[in-house]
Design brief:
single chain, periplasm, 6-stranded antiparallel beta barrel, Peptidase_S1C, Thrombin, subunit H, about 525 residues, PDZ_6, serine protease, 7-stranded antiparallel sheet, alpha+beta
């Protein structure tokens, strides 16, 4: 079989050779050179819409973006004795010891031996320690005379700052001011007659999900790195503080990009990169930026005064869940529930009470606690605002003259995960329909929770043994009988849930529990 196939192929090859030879003879007879020409197909060339280039934007904004190197003073004796991380103890060796001589020569070759001795002497005299790099990030000029915006978390531990320009020039910078609540800071370099290229702020209210953006910064200390992506969400809350309102950017943003700008295609700053979502520490393509409108106001205050003054209501607040809204007779789950007004605060002086729901400020509806915190924080201390409240099943309003937010305080939501404080044994009385066992409290205020049914709604809502019930439907209670009385009235009013104020060692919060559930 194989032989027959071979014979067939041989005859076919011979025939092809005869044909080619015949063509060659014919070509010669016609006066055409005996050369067989070959033709090739054209290379692939797809005619498709071209994606806009970012090159023009990058060329324009890059000179305004800087790298920020942060240095801190190291006072540790171990650090002083170990410039190269080689370990301590070499100074204790004899002067003629080979290892000691080797490392002395090594330091001299690196140009550090003499300088190290001088630094150690100076540091011992002034007691300040040696400056060492401890962090690096990004920033950008917002004025031609040298004001630079970056993140607070980049500079917070620094004693000295060095700014590296796009062309490699290094300039010393001083800290003008910082704001931990928005994670913003401002540095200043001496222009020495030079005018710096700077960038302006975009109106981020006009930014839409899906818009192209370009991030420029200093990831991993590389400097001058450009990445691109899109705006993928607005108003993100990543639980970093009461003023969370981030723009989510789907672009490769990494460590070192913090404090760097994200631009629109007009070269305006849409936001300031401040955080990334990552389980490994590297980029997974999701980053969060402080909106330009927020940053602009804070930066303006920091440049003028070095600090940020915010309005202060002075109340502890928590979200209004669907269950809480139902227990209070609210038509929708919105607003901010007042857990407790602080003593002497503007809110308390104006008559705001625990159990009130703040529904609007100056006629503008309040969505949630973050919304309230941002609105009040954006107002100037001393401003008079009209605060709309929902109390006892009806609306009312009070006028509040805002105070100044204290340095270590903020209008933040109540902690729903508060840990209970231990309680002393007490007589127990069961409220089986709630899954709670209660008894008198040690201080006579409220009712102590001595047991919680693990299968109850109360347990599902985080109510724990050792906590106290201080009020039900905004009525103070001091015994199980008081609780039952309030619940009976709620049932008569057609309510299916009741609002319990729970007190623990870490603070107070509200929990809505079903009245008729077993």
């Amino acid at each position: 079989m194989f032989r027959n196939i071979k014979d067939t192929l041989s005859r076919s090859t011979a025939m092809k050779a005869s044909v080619v030879a015949g063509l060659a003879v014919a070509a010669l007879a016609a006066g055409v050179p005996a050369e067989v020409s070959r033709s090739y197909a054209d290379a692939v060339n797809v005619q498709a819409p071209q994606v806009p280039s970012f090159a023009n934007v990058v060329d324009a904004v890059s000179p305004a973006v800087v790298s920020v190197r942060v240095e801190s003073r190291i006072n540790s004796a171990a650090e002083e004795d170990d410039s190269f991380g080689l370990g301590r103890g070499f100074d204790d060796l004899p002067d003629d010891h080979p290892l000691k001589k080797f490392f002395r020569q090594f330091e001299q070759q690196q140009g550090r031996g003499q300088q190290k001795g001088q630094n150690q002497q100076k540091n011992s005299e002034d007691g300040k320690g040696r400056l060492r790099p401890v962090a690096q990030g990004s920033g950008f000029f917002v004025s031609e005379d040298g004001y630079i915006v970056t993140n607070n978390h980049v500079v917070s531990d620094g004693a000295a700052f060095v700014v590296v320009l796009n062309d490699g020039t290094e300039l010393d910078a001083k800290l003008v001011g910082k704001d931990s609540r928005t994670d913003l800071a401002v540095l200043k370099v001496d222009p020495k007659g030079k005018k710096f290229t700077y960038v302006g702020w975009a109106d981020d209210a006009k930014v839409r999900v899906g818009d192209w953006v370009v991030a420029v910064g200093n990831p991993f200390g590389l400097g001058g790195t450009v990445t691109a992506g899109i705006v993928s969400a607005r108003g993100r809350d990543i639980h970093s503080g009461p003023y969370d309102d981030y723009i989510q950017i789907d672009a490769p943003v990494n460590k070192g990009n913090s404090g760097g700008p994200t631009f629109n295609l007009n070269g305006q700053v849409v936001g300031i990169n401040t955080a990334i979502f990552s389980q490994s520490g590297g980029s997974v393509g999701i980053a969060f930026a402080i909106p330009a409108t927020t940053a602009k106001d804070v930066v303006t205050d920091l440049i003028k005064t070095g600090t940020v003054s915010r309005g202060w209501l002075g109340v502890q607040i928590q979200p209004v869940s669907k269950d809480i809204a139902e227990s209070l007779g609210l038509s929708e789950a919105s607003g901010a529930l007042v857990v407790s007004p602080q003593d002497g605060s503007p809110g308390q002086k104006a008559g705001i009470k625990n159990g009130d729901v703040v529904t609007a400020v100056n006629g503008e509806p309040v969505k949630d606690p973050r919304d309230l915190a941002r609105r009040i924080g954006a107002m100037q201390p001393g401003s008079k605002v009209e605060v709309s409240l929902w109390r006892d099943g009806k609306s009312q309003s009070v006028t509040v003259e805002l105070g100044t937010l204290p340095v270590d305080q903020s209008q933040s939501p109540a902690d729903d995960n508060s840990q209970p404080s231990p309680s002393q044994p007490s007589s127990e009385k069961a409220l089986a329909d709630l899954g709670l066992t209660v008894g008198p409290s040690d201080d006579g205020k409220g009712v102590a929770i001595t047991a919680v049914d693990p299968d109850s709604d109360a347990a599902d809502k985080g109510v724990k043994e050792g906590e106290k019930i201080t009020s039900v439907n905004n009525q103070q209670v001091s015994s199980a009988k008081d609780i039952v009385k309030v619940l009976d009235q709620a049932k008569k009013d057609g309510r299916t849930r009741a609002l319990f104020q729970i007190q623990s060692g870490d603070g107070s919060r509200f929990v809505a529990l079903p009245i008729n559930a077993g």
